[in-house]
């Protein structure tokens, strides 16, 4: 897998530092509250686990799964709800844990969905933000790292289900995903 990586953007240590910082920020902001932390599957599982271990507040945990890439390297623009949350969000503070915010479409879809269901507040915590990729007005409240407009994998991010288990974030070599 490592041979498919053009360059490393963020090391395991960089990611751990970002998770620690975000966990401390969320702890400060949610002192005395019990938010629902919702991980956006599958990409956010590693990030969510590492951040919540740094949080010193009571939480409920749930997951949601949406698809917009459908195996490609760019968002299709079509959002499909694959797995819904099980907890009732009505009147609750919600924190979404995302691996990356790129076009912003998925984030906007999720925020609208939970707002319709009566969430008291909705905040977004993302490991990576790719503002150059934005096509809708969406932003995270907590950002770990900023990434350039390149195809990145590792630490939860994948290409066709592969590379999620890399302990760092790297740029995938174009020849790995380009049509040959």
From TrEMBL:
Keyword S-adenosyl-L-methionine among record annotations: no
Cofactor or coenzyme needed: Mg(2+)
MF (Gene Ontology): glycosyltransferase activity
Cross-referenced SUPFAM superfamilies: PRTase-like
Keyword Nucleotide-binding attributed: yes
Gene3D superfamilies on file: 3.40.50.2020
EC number: 2.4.2.8
Reaction it catalyzes: IMP + diphosphate = hypoxanthine + 5-phospho-alpha-D-ribose 1-diphosphate; GMP + diphosphate = guanine + 5-phospho-alpha-D-ribose 1-diphosphate
Top-rank taxon: Bacteria
Keyword entries, A-Z: Cytoplasm, Glycosyltransferase, Magnesium, Metal-binding, Nucleotide-binding, Purine salvage, Transferase
Localization per Swiss-Prot or TrEMBL: Cytoplasm
Pathway(s) this gene product operates in, as recorded in its UniProt entry: Purine metabolism; IMP biosynthesis via salvage pathway; IMP from hypoxanthine: step 1/1; Purine metabolism; GMP biosynthesis via salvage pathway; GMP from guanine: step 1/1
Enzyme class: transferase
Domain spans labelled Phosphoribosyltransferase: 9-160
Family note: Belongs to the purine/pyrimidine phosphoribosyltransferase family.
Entry function: Purine salvage pathway enzyme that catalyzes the transfer of the ribosyl-5-phosphate group from 5-phospho-alpha-D-ribose 1-diphosphate (PRPP) to the N9 position of the 6-oxopurines hypoxanthine and guanine to form the corresponding ribonucleotides IMP (inosine 5'-monophosphate) and GMP (guanosine 5'-monophosphate), with the release of PPi.
The protein, known as: Hypoxanthine phosphoribosyltransferase
Lineage: Bacteria, Bacillati, Bacillota, Bacilli, Lactobacillales
Gene: hpt
């Amino acid at each position: 897998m490592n041979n498919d990586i053009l360059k490393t953007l963020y090391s395991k240590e960089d990611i751990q530092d970002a998770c620690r910082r975000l966990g401390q920020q969320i702890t400060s902001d949610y002192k005395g509250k019990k938010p629902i932390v919702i991980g956006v599957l599958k990409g956010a599982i590693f990030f969510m686990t590492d951040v919540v271990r740094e949080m010193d507040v009571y939480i409920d945990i749930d997951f949601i799964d949406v698809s917009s890439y459908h195996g490609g390297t760019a968002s299709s623009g079509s959002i499909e709800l694959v797995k819904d949350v099980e907890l009732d969000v009505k009147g609750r503070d919600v924190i979404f844990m995302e691996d990356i915010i790129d076009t912003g479409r998925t984030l906007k879809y999720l925020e609208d969905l939970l707002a319709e269901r009566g969430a008291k507040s909705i905040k977004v915590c993302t490991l990576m933000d790719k503002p150059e990729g934005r096509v809708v007005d969406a932003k995270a409240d907590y950002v770990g790292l900023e990434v350039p407009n390149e195809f990145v994998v590792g630490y939860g991010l994948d290409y066709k289900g592969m590379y999620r288990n890399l302990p760092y974030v790297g740029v995938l070599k174009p020849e790995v995903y380009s049509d040959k």
